[in-house]
Amino acid sequence: MQRNGGGVGAGGQPWVLRRVRLTWLSFMLFFILVFFPLIAHYYLTTIDEAGGPDKRIFGPRPGGELCEAKHVQDLCRIRESVSEELLQLEAKRQELNGEIARLNLRIEACKRSIDSAKQDLLQLKNVISQTEHSYKELMAQNQPKLSLPVRLLPDKEDPGLPPPKSAHSCRLRSCFDYGRCPLTSGFPVYVYDTGSYPWGDYLDPLVKQAFAASVKGNIYVTDNPSIACLYLVLVGELQESSSPLPSPSELEKQLKALPYWRSDGHNHLLVHLSRKSMTQNFLYNVSTGRAAVAQSTFLEQQYREGFDLVVSPLVHALSEPNFLEVPPQVPVKRKYLFTFQGERVESLRSSLQEAPPQSFEEEMEGDPPADYDDRIIGTLKAVQDSHLDQVLVEFTCKNPRTSLPTEWALCGEREDRLEVLKASTFALVIAPGDGQLVASAGCGMRLFEALEVGAIPVVLGDHSRLPYHQFIRWSEAVIIVPKPRVTELHFLLRSLSDNDMLAMRRQGRFLWETYFSTSENVLSTILASIRTSIQVPAAPIKEEPAHEIPHKAGKLAGTDANLADNGDLDLGPVETEPPYASPRFLRNFTYTAADTYRAWNRAPGPFHLFPHTPLDPVLPSEAKFLGSGTGFRPIGGGTGGSGKEFQAALGGNVPREQFTVVMLTYEREEVLMNSLERLNGLPYLNKVVVVWNSPKPPSDDLLWPDIGLPIVVVRTEKNSLNNRFLPWDAVETEAILSIDDDAHLRHDEIMFGFRVWREARDRIVGFPGRYHAWDVNHQSWLYNSNYSCELSMVLTGAAFFHKYYAYLYSYVMPQAIRDMVDEYINCEDIAMNFLVSHITRKPPIKVTSRWTFRCPGCPQALSHDDSHFHERHKCINFFVKVYGYMPLLYTQFRVDSVLFKTRLPHDKTKCFKFI
Question: What's one GO-annotated cellular component (predicted)?
Fold first, then answer.
């Protein structure tokens, strides 16, 4: 028990001791941690105080003493630097606060000045508007007020004007009622129905049918006789009939019985169209009153100079001339120098007193001889027998045509005569021996056939009146020789140069094709002659209506920096105004006194063009050249001179002008959209006309780019490349940029081409050049697209041309050419080059482009086909046959910008700003 208790006691005593020791250890640790630092601090403080202030070791010290410590000197320097920077920043902050305050004051002042400027601008606009209104009022006060002339429309029983002294003295001033034909009337013509008068049954059926067809398509014909300016009556050709013709007195009664004859027949035109060389002078000894007469045969006592009209015979009544049968105009010299085939029906020599023949000198000194025909026969036979030149003269015929007395009858059939004329350089036309016969159908027939096949007519007899001699300058196509000079005829013909003969042959072809070739041309020429004589402007040719396809525009198109970059090309001020059309009818009706004669008597040349209606070269947008339509006079140069004025005028004669882009496309929507986007921001662009050549309309979900200008999508009747050159009424500018839908042109290239065109408005101005070549081995023409120093064509895939040529291409150019374009779906660009070169006798102008105008990523085009070039070879040869010669002209001329591809420093470009 004690051991156990002792064990407990012994074991308990160490536990108590351990507890006591732990408590003591904790107390000591607390004392050391708490009281020892306090005691140490107190002790140290007491030592510093006992040693004096100079003996302080741990207490605080002055700044200088502390900085003397080596280890804190760097820290002191940093502190001083930071303090200095803080002071500087504070100064800057205060300065910026002051500047902000000053700027706020200036902003407030600017806002007040902007509000004031807006008010001043509004007031200025009001002042300008009032000034313009005042200017208009002032101009209205200083200018007379114009009104349409009063039309005098007499009643049916109107007694008419006072009768002239004699029927032979009738002239326009005395026998024509100008009151029925004001300048603004449009020249309405009323045509009598051939079945409404008695002699209508005697008319040749072919003539009646051709006349009716021509009248139906004429733009001047009206069905309202009360407003008519001219009344047209067909009196011949008469058919061969056993029925007796009415006597002159009966015919006069029948004429007076016409519904609108009005007692004297003023403003009536009696038309006699001859189809035979022997045609009856139906109106001889018939008093026609104040009615004018248009026919091929006139006696001197019957013809009223300046009032009646000598017309051409109607050879092709219902058929169109076949241009492929017309011989070419080259070579100039043919087999025979001159030819003549004819037989004299009756000579006046038999009715004259027999007398010994006189020499030409004796006859000229005395009275003029009655008949030179015998002298002519002897002279021509002597030339033939001399064998100096090969000539063909025959004065007897196996089958002579019936002709008038003293007139030379035609020999054989028309086809036989044409074969002889095709081999003749010159064709003699001997005027009737009777000087009283001033015009005859036989001579008109000879003249027509010679012009048709390109034989230069030589008229022996200056007393004859050729068709429309008041308006046509026949001396440019016909050699007129008085009969006394027959002995000098051979010398005269030999002295002509090849250039002169070719010019006369080309002029003769133009006269025949324009005025005589068809019944429509004959009727149009007759009406145009009367209309121009009374100075009534011609009606404009109708434009092609553009039936627009609705489309919706998408987002605003972007601008390619490469395409829109104008580089160093400065073309003058860029118009920022909305699109505007070219000015029209600047000269109005003044052309009749200034340019009528000159415009009528020129073949296609550098300064005169002619539309479809003979003698009616009037087009809506060309009135600015020669009034409201007497022709087209290309104007070069500019209203400014050189330097800044020329640059501001941009070339041409109009300081402000724009152009229209015409783009032909066919089922290439993506390519088309890209091309349209490239036109965004193009200066001087009026609008874009997209000719949609596909029968399938555009996709409904197709979004067209918004280029800031109108895009007119035109629906076409058929897929034809000729649609590219239709004179669309949507085109309101004179300048047309014809461009393919896959063409790439920079803006500066287009602008420079536009400037060049304005200085040569009668030419095709474009970028891709081509030329034609003669194949000696195959004796034919070839189309060549290789790069060469020469060119004769500029393709219309990227070219400027005048809208006038759109009218000529669509309405004047032979239909056979347009048919071939449709057949091959090719060659429309070649056809346009042929036309312009034929009209102007000038080559096109190539403008250098800075890069290729083709689209490298576009789908395959028609030109990539192997048959493309073979078709173009055929086209050229066919066009040459139609025109009769090769109108294309070579040129090595090319137009570049003054600074084309010239790299200039930026500080030097200002020196060339106005070049």
Answer: endoplasmic reticulum membrane
- Per-residue confidence at 526, pLDDT binned at 50, 70, 90? very high
Identify each DSSP E strand in 38-124 by its residue range: none
* Cβ count near 22 (within 10 Å): 10
Give the start-end residues of each E strand in 263-313.
268-272, 292-295, 298-299, 309-310
Residue 911 DSSP symbol? G
Count, in order, helices (H) and strands (E) of the chain: 24, 28
- Return the domain boundaries, the chain: 168-310, 336-346+371-515, 587-618+654-883
Contact 278, 403 (CB under 8 A): yes
Burial class from Cβ neighbours inside 10 Å (0-12, 13-18, 19+) for residue 323 reads: middle
Q: Is 784 helix (H, G, I), strand (E, B) or coil?
A: strand
What confidence tier does 150 reach under pLDDT thresholds 50, 70, 90?
low
Greatest Cα pair distance, the chain, in angstroms, is: 212
829 flagged as catalytic: yes
* Dihedral of the alpha carbons of 850, 856, 861, 866, in degrees to the nearest 10: 90
Token pair 């030109």 is at which residue? 863
Q: Is the dihedral of CA 697, 699, 700, 704 positive or negative?
A: negative
Give the tens place of pLDDT for each residue, 252-308.
Answer: 899 999 999 988 889 999 999 998 877 778 788 888 889 999 999 999 888 999 899
Q: Is 531 left (phi over 0), alpha (psi -120 to 50) or beta?
A: alpha
What DSSP string describes 726-776?
--BTT--SSEEEEEETTB---HHHHHHHHHHHHHSTTS-EES-EEEEEEET
CB-CB contact of 334 with 441 (8 Å): no
The hierarchical CATH code for the domain 336-346+371-515 is 3.40.50.2000
What are the angstrom distances between the C-alpha of 333 and each of 221, 325, 499? Answer: 44, 19, 11
| Amino acid found at 657 | E
User: Of 741, 693, 738, which Cα lies nearest the Cα of 717?
Assistant: 693
pLDDT for res 4: 45
Which residues does 176 contact at the CB level (< 8 Å), separation at least 6?
A: 266, 267, 290, 292, 307, 534
254 neighbors 269 (Cβ within 8 angstroms): no
Output the six-digit token pair for 62. Answer: 């002055």
The residues, any chain, with a CB within 8 Å of residue 328's CB and separated by 6 or more, are 454, 880, 881, 884, 885
Residue found under tokens 């105009």: 329
* In CATH, 587-618+654-883 is 3.40.630.10: no
SS3 698: coil
Comparing CA positions, the residue from 596, 327, 296, 337 lying closest to residue 479 is 337
Structure confidence by residue, pLDDT tens digits, 172-217: 988 898 888 888 888 999 999 988 888 888 888 999 999 999 999 8
Q: Which of 829, 865, 866, 896 does the annotation list as catalytic? A: 829
Rounded to the nearest 10 degrees, the angle between the axes of helix 867-883 and helix 828-840 is 30
Residue given tokens 């009001």 in the structure block: 126
Cα-trace Rg, the chain: 49
